[in-house]
Specification:
heterodimer, A: two-stranded antiparallel ribbon, 2 strands, 1% strand, B: alpha/beta, Rossmann fold, five-stranded parallel beta sheet, 14 helices, 40% helix, 16% strand
């Protein structure tokens, strides 16, 4: 097992960060906004890859955990006036706590039962906001991360500020996730995914390890929720619909659910497809209703195609191919 | 294993590079720095976000076509100072996240001059928080919501409301109840968000006592949930029930109550009171008959009204086969006021000159409204009152006694008084100069 040294990885992430920084200065504001959305999806999808790809558990309710994170961040900032990084930390902790609870239940379930439980969560949880006035009902709560510092200049837009925050948070989260997956825990998760009986025989406490996976995954989802809340300036039940959970899962499958390496593929696809469809629809002059609903159809079709032809995702596929070529 | 991880790295970097290249090669839309964004030598580009699909779309999805019909009529008659008006329509499905994303597209990609008639209270709030049109100096003309907060000039300096606020509507409705249904047991169904809380505030100011109030979450309205409302209303023995929600909620309430043989005196809020939409949702006209409704525009069947007659003619030609209803009238009237605002903004309109023009001349704009517009530098309030009437056996809202009796009030604690406003004559051929 020879892997890149930590120093090399840190260097790579710093270079990546610098490239992203350079790009953010070159593109227009809409791209910057979309970049922030991509960052939200990257973190959300990564949370699913951690859970499903590594520990073998399925969650259809990741959107609800994003909601927990988003609301926690908004409430903390509204009521306690905490700084943005602290509100992110609170989002991560709150979602992780919710994930731990869910994990306790999940450790007893598997397959369709687990999928059903998490699905129920995605359907039910957002509507809780309608029951308690302090959650702001249907129209939600404001989540304001403030204007960019004046030292960045007059031309520095709000969305660039959002993007910088989101990109930095995403890089940190992915770096940390890679660390976790390379650790003892990552290996035990993989062992469980491979065969839980074998893992148990090897002395792994399956329930505890599964709960830990759920907790960490939920924490990452919470961060994604806070980032999402930041980009739209508010949290509301309709910002965390069932469709969000499905989009993230689709993104994870498109990325290749067993590798963190392809996480950008899913995120970019989810943001780019509506954009591409819109420009095509504008050109052929079809109705707005087509433009809004066609992307979901295309993404679903892509999901089916991916599952049929590259079930492990494009990145894994390329690796397997290169391995075959080498062994010849 | 070594090759593996290198490959992983190479793939990831290649991905990133490709993405970066794709993004950077997309040219930033070129625009001449001399003229204002969205204004060219022969075009003024406006944008709207509105639910075109989804649960809340019925009725409101007719608004863009109605607005386009009037804009095209103006375009065919020389446009605004020689410029044609185009309207870019984006479907937000009544979801705030979508409204933010679509408004960003309108402002940053389509580069519209101004937003017109964006619909929805929660949507407009999310847009104000995230996109922040005020900070960008983008005018938001005539938001399609009666949330009183949008008239707050300090908080939303570039936003103008047009519809009377829900607070005003509730206060005037309370007056109508006092005059016509004194001593009756009253129930209320409202949308559980700022739209509804605004109405609740108005009813509270007017001192209306409800036997029961039923809040529903936006988007949750259906025959199933409406059965729950009916159970609660029946249990409270309500004689008079106010349905203060969107059209689909009104239709669900009326339809389900009829199926359950519950027939109180209905009072419908103006937002969800459009007869065509309610009937299209499968509610028989007979169920609507005798329900009380309110409007600030003339009755859509009042063909003697010069605006109704002109607008219905234009609409019939532009969108053949589509019924001329209140949503269409509201849309065309918004377009009509927008054209005047654009004209008042000068030969070479800028976003600043547009706002200055509405602040200084907005209160003199002609419109189909039977109440005055109240724009000034310190007020972004549009219409400020209502007339009440009943739905006819065919389901058309007609004023009581065949005559519009108009009431006016404010969004604060001001009294409800009869309006003495006389609407000025329509500009010739409905083309303001």
């Amino acid at each position: 097992m020879h892997k890149l040294s930590n120093k090399a990885r840190i260097a790579i992430f710093i270079v990546l960060g610098f490239v992203i920084f350079l790009i953010s200065n070159r593109v227009d504001e809409l791209r910057v906004y979309q970049g922030a959305t991509v960052a939200v999806y990257v973190v959300g999808i990564a949370s699913i890859i951690l859970l499903t790809g590594y520990s073998g558990q399925v969650s259809l309710g990741q959107g609800a955990l994003l909601g927990v994170g988003g609301y926690a961040a908004a409430l903390a900032r509204l009521h306690w006036g905490v700084s943005v990084p602290v509100s992110f930390a609170i989002a991560i902790l709150a979602a992780a706590a919710a994930g731990a609870l869910l994990g306790v239940a999940a450790a007893r379930l598997s397959g369709p039962y687990l999928a059903g439980t998490t699905l129920a969560l995605a359907v039910g949880l957002p509507s809780i906001a309608n029951q308690f006035t302090f959650l702001g009902g249907e129209q939600g709560l404001f989540y304001d991360v403030g204007f960019p510092p004046a030292s960045l200049g007059e031309d520095f837009t709000q969305y660039k500020w959002f993007f910088w925050i989101a990109a930095l948070a995403t890089l940190l989260a992915i770096f940390w996730l890679q660390n976790v997956m390379r650790s003892r825990y990552g290996r035990t998760w993989k062992a469980i995914r491979g065969s839980d009986i074998a893992a148990e025989l090897a002395g792994i406490n399956i329930a505890r390890v599964k709960i830990l996976a759920f907790t960490l995954s939920a924490g990452v989802a919470g961060l994604a929720g806070a980032l999402l809340a930041m980009t739209i300036g508010t949290v509301s039940p309709s910002a965390f619909p069932l469709a969000l959970s499905f989009s993230l899962l689709t993104g994870a499958v498109l990325s290749g659910v067993t590798t963190l390496g392809g996480v950008m593929i899913g995120a970019v696809t989810l943001v780019a497809i509506p954009e591409i469809v819109h420009s095509v629809v504008d050109r052929i002059g079809a109705s707005e209703a087509v433009a809004t609903n066609l992307p979901s159809l295309i993404v679903s079709a892509l999901l089916i195609v991916t599952v049929i032809f590259v079930p492990n995702g494009p990145v894994e596929q390329m690796r397997t191919k290169s391995k075959k070529v080498k062994s010849l | 294993m070594k090759a593996f991880n290198r490959r992983k790295l190479v793939t990831a970097s290649a991905m990133l590079a490709v993405t970066a290249l794709t993004i950077t090669t997309v040219p930033a839309q070129a625009f001449s720095p001399k003229s204002e964004v969205g204004v060219s030598a022969n075009e003024i580009k406006l944008g709207i976000t509105i639910p075109m699909t989804g649960a809340a779309s019925p009725g409101y999805n007719k608004v863009p076509a109605a607005m386009k019909a009037y804009f095209d009529y103006v375009n065919a008659n020389g446009g605004v100072n020689g410029r044609k008006i185009t309207l870019v329509v984006k479907d937000d499905q009544y979801v705030p996240t979508q409204a933010v994303a679509k408004t960003n597209e309108l402002i940053l990609k389509d580069r519209v001059f101004a937003l017109v008639s964006p619909l929805g209270t929660a949507n407009n709030k999310a847009v104000a928080a995230s996109v922040n049109p005020a900070k960008r100096g983008v005018p938001v003309l005539f938001v399609n919501t009666g949330f009183s907060g949008f008239a707050d000039v300090k908080k939303y300096p570039t936003t103008y409301s047009l519809l009377p606020s829900y607070v005003m509507e509730a206060k005037i409705m309370a007056e109508y109840i006092k005059d016509n249904f004194a001593g009756k047991t009253i129930g209320l169904v409202y949308q559980d968000d700022d739209f509804g809380s605004d109405a609740l505030a108005g009813f509270k100011t007017a001192g209306v006592k409800f036997a029961t109030t039923v809040g529903y979450a936006s988007g949750s309205q259906s025959a199933t949930t409406a059965a729950g409302w009916v159970t609660k209303l029946k249990a409270a023995n309500c004689d008079v029930v106010i349905l203060f929600g969107v059209s689909s909620a009104t239709a669900a309430g009326l339809g389900t109550a009829a199926a359950l043989k519950y027939a109180p005196q209905w009072i419908l809020g103006s937002v969800g009171g459009d007869a065509t939409t309610i009937k299209a949702a499968g509610v028989p006209a007979g169920v609507l008959y005798n329900a009380v409704g309110a409007s600030f525009l003339p009755s859509t069947t009042d063909t003697a009204d010069e605006y109704v007659s002109l607008f219905s003619g234009i609409y019939a030609k532009a969108v053949p086969g589509s019924a001329f209803d209140n949503n269409v009238l509201v849309g065309m009237n918004s377009a009509f006021v927008t054209v005047q605002a654009l004209q008042a903004a000068g030969k070479n309109p800028t976003r600043k000159s547009l706002i200055a023009a509405i602040n200084s001349k907005g209160s003199t704009f002609a419109s189909a409204g039977l109440l005055p517009l109240n724009y000034s530098a310190s007020s972004h309030v549009g219409y400020n009152g209502y007339w009440f009437g009943k739905y006819s056996p065919t389901g058309d809202l007609k004023p009581d006694g065949g005559k519009y009796t108009l009431y006016t009030t404010d969004s604060g604690s001001g009294a409800v008084v009869k309006s003495t406003y006389k609407r000025p004559a329509m500009p010739a051929k409905g083309l303001p100069n």
